[in-house]
Each structure stands twice: as structure tokens, then as C-alpha cells.
Design brief:
The protein has seven helices and six strands; from the N terminus they run αβαβααβαβαββα. By secondary structure, it is α/β, with parallel strands linked by helices. Strand 1, helix 2 and strand 2 form a beta-alpha-beta unit.
């Protein structure tokens, strides 16, 4: 039993889970058209570096615009196709995209109202099952407290960036630790530095 568990863990891969708006794309209200998609500076290059180091890059995004009737799921797919096109043109790619369409009923980002909607960990847990992700070796990057908590609730380490949602660090006292970085570039550099430190510690 112990050997089987060890073998399973050795086949799992680390991932970086990424919020969309305000993290890798410009935050400008509800994104309801592919014409609105704008990559933030260094987003594609940062994803490419993470991929080169062996991380899966997985988008996990709350998209209540669907639940509010502002766009359809087909229109959301078109938006994400444009996002993938822009990333590919810059030499980067996502391994998967997960979205939650539920609308929040509360203003408190720390409360899990629905398992898939961040701060709920559902999208991350589903991705882990689908793609064979080692959550204990994975990270979540986002601009909101709900992103930070989704990562923590899934068993990942979390980083909050200040390129999107109104930001103070920490925004309030919460019972978890997370790193604060200015941008996706700084977050990726922090992850890669932590990875190199860990590898040296175990003699890789």
C-alpha cells in the first residue's frame, strides 16, 4: 500500500493555477467580447517560463457574467479561444481552462457559497483529478482574496498580485499565509526561485 501511494505521487505533476481578469488579462469590468481581451505585460512570457520548468498552467476563473445572462457559454468559449490565440502568438499556452458560472449572493470573498466558485476549491480539485496534479507542490496566483483562499482550500500555496482588483496587502487578517507580488512576472519568478531552492535542498 505504501509503495503504491509513492508510485502514484511520483506520477503527479505540479501546476500553477491562474485567475484570468486582473492576473493574466487586463481587468476592465465584465469581459463580454473577445475584442476586449488584452494580455497583461509579461503574462505570456511568465507562463512560458513556468511551462519550461515543468509546471502545468491551468486557468480557473469565476465567470458570473454567464450566470447573470450577460454572455452565453458559447460566447465565453469564444473569449477563451481569443485568449489562447494571443498566448500562442506570444509563445505560451494553457493546459486547461475551468470556469464557474454561478453568481455570488454575498459580498464576503472569504465565504464558500458554491464548491466551484472561488474561494471554493472545486475547480482546482477537478483539474487535479483530470490532469494528475500534485496539489501540495502547486500554486495559485490571483488578484483577489477569493483566489488566494481557493488555492489554500485546495492545498496549494497562494500568491496575490496587485494588477487587478483593488489591492492592499494584507487586505484583512485571514487565517492563512500567502505571498504578495506586484505582477504575474514577479509571481512566476518567486515560484521558480522557490523551486530551485527546493531542488537544491534535495540534491537535484
Amino acid at each position: 500500500m505504501i509503495s503504491g501511494t509513492s508510485d502514484l505521487q511520483s506520477t503527479l505533476k505540479p501546476a500553477v493555477f491562474l485567475d484570468r481578469d486582473g492576473t493574466i488579462t487586463r481587468l476592465d469590468g465584465y469581459l463580454i467580447s473577445p475584442n476586449q481581451v488584452r494580455l497583461l505585460p509579461d503574462a505570456a512570457a511568465s507562463l512560458a517560463k513556468l511551462k519550461q520548468t515543468g509546471f502545468l498552467c491551468i486557468l480557473v476563473t469565476n465567470q458570473s457574467a454567464v450566470g447573470r445572462g450577460m454572455i452565453t457559454t458559447d460566447e465565453l468559449d469564444t473569449i477563451h479561444a481569443e485568449l489562447n490565440r494571443l498566448l500562442a502568438a506570444a509563445g505560451a499556452q494553457l493546459d486547461a481552462i475551468y470556469s464557474c458560472h454561478e453568481c455570488p449572493s454575498l459580498d464576503d470573498e472569504t465565504i464558500v457559497e458554491q464548491p466551484d466558485r472561488k474561494p471554493g476549491p472545486g475547480m482546482l480539485l477537478r483539474a487535479a483529478r483530470d490532469l494528475g496534479v500534485d496539489l501540495s507542490q502547486s500554486w495559485m496566483i490571483g488578484d483577489r482574496l477569493s483566489d488566494v483562499l481557493a488555492g489554500v482550500n485546495a492545498g496549494c500555496r497562494s500568491i496575490r498580485v496587485r494588477t487587478g482588483h483593488r489591492y492592499t496587502c494584507p487586505i484583512r487578517s485571514i487565517d492563512c499565509e500567502y505571498a504578495c507580488k506586484y505582477s504575474i512576472k514577479e509571481a512566476a519568478e518567486f515560484i521558480l526561485a522557490e523551486t530551485r531552492t527546493k531542488d537544491r535542498a534535495i540534491g537535484i
